[in-house]
Design brief:
4-stranded antiparallel beta sheet, 421 residues, 2 domains, 16 helices
């Protein structure tokens, strides 16, 4: 799959180049939002502590390398912190710091970087680009490394009266690099293929997904992109869905189940009145699942009611998707509601699997209810099987009724006979 417009596109390893369009095989893995008050407060507190730590370290270094080191150690350093020099030092270091960030963003993307200034932070960013881990590490760490190296190179030979000012520059740059260094330290521990998007106020991280999840990511993004959902929001929503469907203890109601339901629904898509809403409902219908609870459908519908508006969906869509999810409580659709019939039939398609796969699915369900004693589960399962067998039709669409009804009834009856022995 193409990953879109990229820098150095001639390389065969385009997945580790800077790109404007991220492959759907990448999944949102988290972000640092410096507009979050807690985040910015934490960074500034750490920076304040490091201001003193780096200041002390650089003074010790100056006293070690200077031919005539500052006679009074720290006192000479602090004497240099006159208000005017302090202001010029802050402005000068911050401007140079962000210009270096911007230079490397330009180098790795070919686009002009974006600069911004807020009360508590300044930034350079490449908001339209995703940078691979190694390139972003270079762009993030470059100001700290280059300014520190330049100042340290000057330290042994600079005039004595300028030592304090040089130490101010060193210290302010190092303390102001705390966020960059924290991100760099974390990224070093991540896979080389990790991609990073820096918008300035936020830095987002994306990881290559395992093949099965990557396929589902592609399906999700294809759906919501066609409905006009913002790319970043879509990827975050998918990450939340995956986190829920991959919860420990989900042996049946997991992402694989969603994939199978979507596959079956696709076979009926030509019958649908609003197939996009059917797909959205399938994605969310088991997002909340606790085998001990009796309101999973209602909780899943409520989850969709919270998430869909945040993705930009109108109230009518949210209501319809919620109603479709709630229909899975009884697996009975109203006459003429073809969209609900499609979704419910697709959800029940596993009842008509071949014997081996049907047994495998039954065992997966048993695993989810492992906390229930065997006899109690057996009786509960018998009641469920009898409920479905007592219906005039298990499948409400004519297509699946003709294709799957007989097989599903055979599987259910055989299972009932075994449990009743």
């Amino acid at each position: 799959m193409s990953v879109g417009t990229e820098r150095d596109s001639s390389s065969p390893q385009n997945k580790i180049k800077s790109v404007k369009e991220l492959s759907s095989g990448y999944v949102f893995a988290g972000e640092i939002d410096v507009q979050n008050r807690r985040v910015i407060l934490a960074l500034n507190l750490i920076g304040l502590v490091m201001l003193f730590v780096f200041g002390w370290l650089f003074v010790q270094l100056a006293e070690a390398v200077r031919p005539e080191p500052p006679s009074s150690g720290l006192s000479t350093f602090w004497d240099g912190l006159q208000p005017l020099w302090l202001l010029l030092g802050i402005v000068g270091v911050f401007v140079l710091h962000e210009l270096i960030h911007g230079f490397f963003f330009w180098l790795f993307t070919g686009d002009r970087p974006q600069f911004g200034l807020h009360i508590l932070y300044a930034y350079a960013a490449a908001p339209d680009w995703y940078l691979p881990r190694n390139r972003f590490i270079i762009a993030a760490a470059a100001p700290f490394i280059l300014i520190t190296m330049a100042c340290l190179a000057l330290l042994p030979s600079i005039a004595p009266q300028a030592v304090s000012e040089l130490l101010i520059i060193l210290t302010l740059n190092a303390a102001g690099s705390v966020g960059d260094l924290l991100v760099t330290g974390w990224l070093i521990t991540q896979p080389r293929t990790t991609m990073v998007n820096d918008t300035g106020p936020a830095v987002s991280f994306y990881m290559e997904a395992e093949p099965a999840v990557a396929v589902m990511s592609h399906r999700w993004l294809d759906l919501v992109r066609s409905l006009g959902v913002d790319e970043g929001k879509a990827r975050r929503a998918f990450a939340d869905l995956v986190a829920n469907y991959n919860e420990e203890g989900r042996y049946y109601h997991n992402l694989a189940h969603i994939s199978l339901v979507l596959d079956t629904a696709n076979e009926l898509s030509q019958l649908a009145k609003d197939y996009e809403k059917v797909q959205l409902a399938i994605w969310y219908h088991d997002v909340i699942y606790d085998p001990r609870a009796k309101d999973n459908e209602a909780r899943s519908a409520a989850y969709a009611q919270r998430q869909l508006p945040a993705l930009g969906f109108p109230a009518e869509t949210v209501t319809r998707v919620s109603d479709l999810i709630l229909a899975t409580t009884t697996h009975l659709a109203e006459d003429g509601d073809i969209d609900a019939q499609i979704m419910l039939d697709a959800d029940l398609a596993p009842l008509a699997y071949d014997k081996a796969l049907f047994l495998q699915q039954s065992e997966a369900l048993r695993e989810e209810f492992s906390y229930i004693p065997e006899e109690e589960y057996r009786q509960s399962r018998i009641r469920v099987l009898k409920t479905f067998l007592s219906r005039e039709r298990i499948y409400q669409t004519d297509q699946l009724y003709s294709e799957l009804e007989a097989k599903a009834r055979s599987n259910l009856q055989n299972s009932l006979n075994e449990l009743s022995q």
